[in-house]
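Z., the sequence and structure:
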Amino acid sequence: MQVANNDKELDANAPDKKLTKKPPQKRGMMNRGGGAGVAGEKPANFFGTLKRVLGLLFRDKLRVFIIILTASLGAFSASLGPKLIGNIVNAIFDGIASKMIAS
């Protein structure tokens, strides 16, 4: 059970059953080791690390291929979908408009 008294957090479950003050909580990104705009360190061996990562990925080349394939198909279908829907809407509108003109 917490009791607030004049914007001070107090802990009622203290071992001695007296109200003791809780330590302030750290909040925000600045207390996690850095904030926005902080430059990282320069990698010591970029190409060696890249070679090691690619070697790890090469062991699972089928999975990597499937992931790249599905990501490509997803991007392709996301760009093709609006075009197909536009054509379908135009065909429906043309059919409705031609029936209204004919009658």
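The chain is about 55% helix and 10% strand. Helices lie at 46-59, 61-102.

Let me know what you think.
H.
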